[in-house]
Design brief:
Shape: globular
Largest sheet: 4 strands, antiparallel
Number of helices: 3
Radius of gyration: 19 Å
Length: 332
């Protein structure tokens, strides 16, 4: 898939995530290509701006954090930050986060104590940034596993690492690619009592991480796999094929549901978070998944509006934003 198609997928996805809290659209920042505050000339020479796109975004009172996976070569930093208060429509350079020492993979120094390729980030109730590092370099080209996937939890008040979680081999598969994550602080408690639900897109499944017990397990269901009948895409006249499994993820604390969707499908599914938190499935046991609804075309992003539990999603063919409330069936 070329850069233009990647950007269209990502822009539709980010539109879905960012518009929930807004009644209208506003351009906060914009770039023709992302740029960085580079430390030296050698880093600049390896920069490929056409390969650098962000797939994760989190906002605090004073900063905006961006996650840029190393889909292809030339991505200098996989996690960065910009000030929140910048002129509307401006293009501020990105500052690697926490600092350049975590991003040696951009210059060929694949140190597993640093960050390899981050798809998604989340902020919890204790003002901590959860960083999901897939450990995979150049996933769109040669899919090179450099390190085991991991979670970093960073204290945003001090910008220091509080915890590092290396996922056990029992929850991994040879082609595992961890791409999305939501944090559930509604049942066990907040912060170090939270539960994280993580998508494995290339070896479809959901990995559950219980922070309180420091345990992880994996669940699978046929609905998490891509549907070959929906592997072809048409976005603004550009056609391509992509067989990606579960990637869209959203949590409703009020209903106790986790919504999910593979990229290659026209359906959205739901499963009770209570069933996910039980632990690994017993032999012969099936995860009780339900069909939440059908869409007009495939999609990446899912999000839940905490005010009324409306589900937001973004059909790719229509390049639109849609909401549906599963409680009253209201659509817009």
């Amino acid at each position: 898939m070329n850069h233009t198609k990647e950007m269209k997928l990502i822009l539709v996805f980010l539109g879905c995530l960012s518009s929930i809290q807004a009644t209208g659209f506003e351009v906060v920042n914009q770039w023709s290509f992302l740029d960085f505050e580079f430390p030296d000339f050698s880093t600049i020479t390896q920069f490929r701006p056409e390969n650098t796109v962000f797939t994760g975004l989190e906002v605090t009172s004073d900063r905006i954090f961006l996650a840029m996976p190393r889909l292809r070569i030339g991505v200098p930093a996989t996690l960065a930050v910009i000030p929140r208060k910048t002129p509307a429509g401006s293009s501020p350079p990105l500052k690697p986060y926490p600092d350049w020492s975590f991003h040696g993979a951009g210059t060929g120094n694949n140190n597993c104590s640093g960050l390899i390729s981050v798809y998604r980030i989340r902020i919890d109730a204790c003002n901590r940034l959860w960083v999901l590092d897939s450990g995979i370099m150049t996933s769109l080209d040669d899919f090179t596993r450099v390190c085991s996937p991991k979670l970093l939890i960073i204290d945003l008040s001090t910008d220091t690492i509080l915890r590092q979680i290396i996922f056990p081999k029992e929850v991994l598969r040879p082609s595992s690619l961890f791409t999305n994550m939501v944090i559930d602080e509604s049942v066990q408690g907040t912060c170090d009592s939270a539960v994280a639900y993580i998508t494995d897109t290339a070896a479809p499944g959901i990995v559950v991480y219980d922070s309180l017990k420091d345990q992880a397990w994996r669940v699978m269901h046929p609905t998490m796999f891509p549907d070959p009948d929906f592997s072809d895409y048409n976005i603004d006249g550009e056609r391509f094929t992509l067989m990606d499994g579960i990637v869209g993820l959203a949590h409703s604390p009020n209903l106790g549901f986790l919504y999910y969707q593979p990229l290659a499908t026209d359906r959205i599914f739901t499963v009770s978070t209570a069933d996910l938190r039980k632990g690994p499935l017993m032999e012969g046991e099936e995860l009780p998944v339900r069909l939440a609804g059908r869409k007009s075309s495939q999609g990446l992003g899912l999000a839940v509006d905490a005010r009324d539990d409306s589900l937001y999603f973004s059909p790719l063919t229509e390049t639109s934003l849609t909401s549906w409330n599963p409680i009253n069936n209201h659509q817009r």
